[in-house]
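Notebook B, p. 112. Complex prediction, attempt 2.
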Amino acid sequence: MQASAAAARAMSLLAPARGTCIRTKVYPPQRDVTDEPPRIGVFICHCGSNIASVVDVEEVVRRTAVLPNVVLAEHNIYTCADDTQDTIKDKIGQYRLNRVIVASCTPRTHEAIFRDTLRDAGLNPYLLEMANIRDQCSWVHSAAPDSATRKAADLVRMAVGRAARLVPLTEDTVTVKGAALIIGGGVAGMTAALAMADQGFPVHLVEKSEALGGAARDLFRTLDGLDVQAFLAETIDRVIGHPRITVHLHSHVTQVEGHVGDFTSVITTGAKTRQVEHGVVVVATGAVEGKPTTFGYGQSPRVITQRDLSGQLARGELDLPKGATVAMLQCVEQRTADRPYCSRVCCTMAVQNALAVRERHPDARVVVLYRDMRTYGFREIAYKKARQAGVLFVRFDDDAPPGFSLGADGAIELTVRDAIVQRDLLMRPSVLVLAAPIVGQHDRQEVSDLLRIPINADGFFLEAHVKLRPVDFASEGLFLCGTAHAPKFLSETISQASAVAARAASILSRQTMPIGAQIARVDPDKCVSCMTCVHVCPYLAPIVGDDNKAQVQPTVCMGCGSCTSECPAKAITLHHYTDAQILGAIDRLLNAGPGPVGPGEGAYLEQVGVARPRWTEG
Amino acid sequence: MDTDQELVILALCCHYCAYAAADMAGSMRLQYPGSVRVLRFPCTSKIEVNYLLTAFERGIDGILVAGCLEGGCHFLEGNLRARRRVERAKKLLDEIGLGAGRLEMFNLSSAEGPRFAEIATEMHERVVELGPSPLRRGREAVLAGVAGMASLAEAVIAGEKT
């Protein structure tokens, strides 16, 4: 995430030079293999000693060589090494291979590499199959080499069953609309907008309230002492003054149609609507402070949240009697069974506010009641400072929360059992400060429905992969940053928003982009127009065409296969995961399959030239 | 060829969570029984009852279906559809006397390598208790035939060298 953020900064500087030093790789034309029977070449990798020290690679070769349609089986020390890849290319020509199996590591990291090898050799990249005999075999069965060898042979056999039925696929391309739509005009949305606009891309920034700034309008200082309001004012000025950013205040995105690279959306401002075209969407809708319902919040002006306190401190409104006690209670209505997550920022905010109170009111006593203190990273230094400054930290157990009562005169009484000395403490603080949770926006479900993006159990938007794709949504072309994703510090929001700009630029900087060929296709002859696929698809990919038959829009389809399994007429095929390919693997594993596969078997409907019904023409 | 002596369990895994977790179990060098063979799907929602029943018909000893955590599906609710299908298939397995215990659905996130090893071990132990599938006989007969093909293997490999 931070690397992507750095890339975005670099790209802003390099924006004028974009596209000036690129070389386009040229691939040989693809050989037509439709009329050839499958001729499978299997390359089994030692991965140095990673595989070969456990699996008897030569035995796997022997067991593989006898399988139907296999014309070549060999083993290599490192299959991904350049020289081995050249060997594979040579062997493809020499043996007229038209299916290639690489038995090595995981396709999650190496499939793209070997697909490229096939393209270099004039084969369609979808004619590659991988067997994972390292991550899912040698590494997990190092204590049982015989069993690992049998398993490796089985995994390769499954790959043979599937590979024999693989069919070449062509990827469509779409023209990219080089603009961005950003939902949310807080720090996350504005940072992403500026980073993209600085790279030269037009941005539509949509904010539902009357002003930019979001939750940061209620923040005053960071722990490092930076003035958040000054930063915010400067950022807002830059956004409003930027020639490539169009700000839509008081506005909502009410419709999003299309797919990565080519979206058409409707922005509604009051009674007016405006249609915009863009290539990516960024969700930066933020989060809010959940107002507590316990510990007398709302019943007494002396019970406030940490955010309220930092506001009072910043405005100089905090008025404390001499020798007052300020009690801070952490983890209020969070890290419980109902709301299991941690809001991440409250411990640091408590420590920061405690230090500020001690500085302004040296005679005031500050007591922090906590379950676990987590001042992330270097913020630990502030925690140490707070201890040195005489802030008292009292730990209580999860199952013994403090008792609270509010007297008729407005006096607050707190009882807490100190978990360390196992004694009950009684205190009558002048002010009780609650660490309220950060919760998702109340209209998050509408955003989720609009863009068909997932929300996790905590009420925040869910990224595609926590480590590998931390700012992307699973759907292509949709990105996520800021507290809409999870509670986080301002600095983390800024780096995440910059990272989004870098990821988005990887789409926006292209003229056209390919879309994966692993998509669903409907056979109109079998379709009974029941609309099941339309209801099942999470992305609204299937539509009903002019012939009243379902069609799957190739650019919208994400290739999950939900519709293919639900279609009652079995009219839908998921390319690259056909029944024949899946059952081929299962049959071959259990040695129950038919003999060799013949030419053209398993080909898709549109590839064997079945004409569409005549009455649909003209 | 002694695969017939050993239990064979299929793990039908979704690409985004379970398959990634299985890879992670590898990176962490966690050990689990060698009976489990992973087959990758884009999403568990692609797994049809037909695939499960076909595998049982061909003599598989057990199947585990592994998808994303509920609510955390890459394709929104594909894993919930898969669960319904697995439940349906389990009923059918009970009806035909093979027993629903040979099939189970699990949910885990891509970061749960240890959980994958746990699931694999749990399923293996369960199938050990149930014993080999009574439908294995067909599989063994074919295997006996395959064993006779060893000489053919040598010929193919020799051919490759010339």
